[in-house]
UniProtKB/TrEMBL annotation, chain A:
Residue span(s) of domain XdhC- CoxI: 11-78
Name of the protein: XdhC- CoxI domain-containing protein
Source organism: Thermogemmatispora aurantia
InterPro entries membership: MoCofactor_Util/Proc, XdhC_CoxI
From TrEMBL, chain B:
UniProt name for this protein: Xanthine and Co dehydrogenase maturation factor
Ranges of residues in domain XdhC- CoxI: 12-73
Domain (XdhC Rossmann): residue spans on this chain: 95-237
InterPro entries named among the record's database cross-references: MoCofactor_Util/Proc, XdhC_CoxI, XdhC_Rossmann_dom
Pfam families documented for this protein: XdhC_C, XdhC_CoxI
């Protein structure tokens, strides 16, 4: 939370809406622990990370949708390490759940 | 809007403990995204719309403030299940040193390096000087037990009692052991510690309270110089923060 605060504050000061994605659970080996956050601004700027790169594009897309409709979403990413390495080229396996919500609380 | 966020931000800025609980799944699909902001005294702001669920989550969230390991928990209530993500934000760790003697100087340095806020308390103005402790966050010349009684002592607080003088050490221990601090250690040999325990017991402290004192203070690394003693104490404080007892320290098979 503390790591994304300065950017979130900057975007909010500009009047932009913000979504926050949080790793809420992790099974197997995953690059970031529960609590890791990625903030996304209305214009698509990002701060923080939920996986070190592997799932960020999908999370950002969802975050922009959540900013628009305000409906929180739970995303699940479960990629075996071999599959992941072939498809995305990053060595991060495991299953993670990422909760994406608009910062309007 | 944004009232809880603003409050969370403020708690973090003021370095006060707080936990945030978010309803992330429910069997009915209702209430997703609802939040509770939970304070150390178990008061809370926000709502899940279900007082019974709130009461249970607040209990867990209060503990999570100090543990700082975020995670989801499942709650079942009236045949419905709720998944709540709870993350605790402990305040930065703080070390209170009672007794501004020769060990306290390197101990302040080590603790500061490890990210602790350091408060040094001593009634003796000749010891507790800025010249000796330029690096302490706070330097207080007063009776330590009186200062401690007024302080916010919590599980992120470690207390090292180092005066060697029962008239300072014992009243301080009585205050600290009446609260829930993360670590308390007191200087003195095994014999001194035993005698101190007996006196404190006569003054009404329980065996459970006395068992929380790390004494003799510090890990047994053969420390001889003040710097080495400070290292032994600091290592013990870190170990205790992560729940390692003395027997686990050299055992890599234990998590």
């Amino acid at each position: 939370m503390r790591d994304i605060l300065p950017d979130v504050e900057r975007w909010r000061a500009r009047g932009e809406r913000v979504a926050v994605a949080t790793v809420v659970s992790v099974a197997g080996s995953a690059p970031r622990r529960p609590g890791a956050k990625l903030a996304v601004s209305e214009k698509g700027e990002i701060s923080g990370s939920v996986s070190g790169g592997c799932v960020e594009p999908a999370v950002i897309e969802t975050a922009l949708q959540v900013i628009k409709d305000g409906k929180p979403q739970m995303l699940e990413f479960g990629i075996s390490e071999e599959e992941n390495f072939e498809q995305i080229g990053l060595a991060c396996g495991g299953t993670i759940h990422v909760f994406v919500e608009r910062l309007d609380w | 809007m944004s009232a809880l966020y603003e409050e969370l931000k403020q708690q973090l800025a003021q370095e006060r403990g707080v936990a945030l609980a978010t309803l992330v799944r429910s069997s009915s699909g209702q209430g997703i995204g609802a939040k509770l902001l939970v304070f150390p005294d178990k008061s809370f702001h926000g709502s899940f719309g279900l007082p019974e669920l709130e009461a249970r989550v607040v209990e867990d969230a209060e503990q999570a403030i100090w543990i700082g390991e975020p995670g989801t928990r499942l709650y079942t209530l009236h045949e419905q299940t709720f998944e709540v993500f709870i993350e605790g934000f402990p305040p930065p760790p703080r070390l209170i040193i009672v007794g501004a003697g020769h060990i306290a100087i390197p101990l302040t340095t080590f603790a500061r390096t490890l990210g602790y806020r350091v408060v040094v308390i001593d009634a003796r103005a000749a010891f507790a000087t800025r010249e000796r402790f330029p690096h302490a966050d706070e330097l207080i010349v007063a009776w330590p037990d009186e200062v401690l009684a007024r302080m916010d002592l919590n599980p992120s607080t470690a207390v090292a009692i180092l005066t060697h003088d029962p008239k300072f050490d014992e009243p301080s221990l009585k205050v600290v052991l009446s609260r829930q601090v993360g670590y308390v250690g007191a200087i003195g040999s095994r014999k001194t510690s035993q005698e101190r325990n007996e006196r404190l017991k006569q003054q009404g402290l329980t065996d459970e309270q006395l068992s929380r004192i790390h004494a003799p203070i510090g890990l047994n690394i053969g420390a001889k110089t003040p710097e080495e003693m400070a290292l032994a104490i600091m290592a013990e404080i870190v170990a205790s923060r992560y729940g390692k007892d003395r027997t686990a320290i050299l055992d890599w098979s234990r998590k």
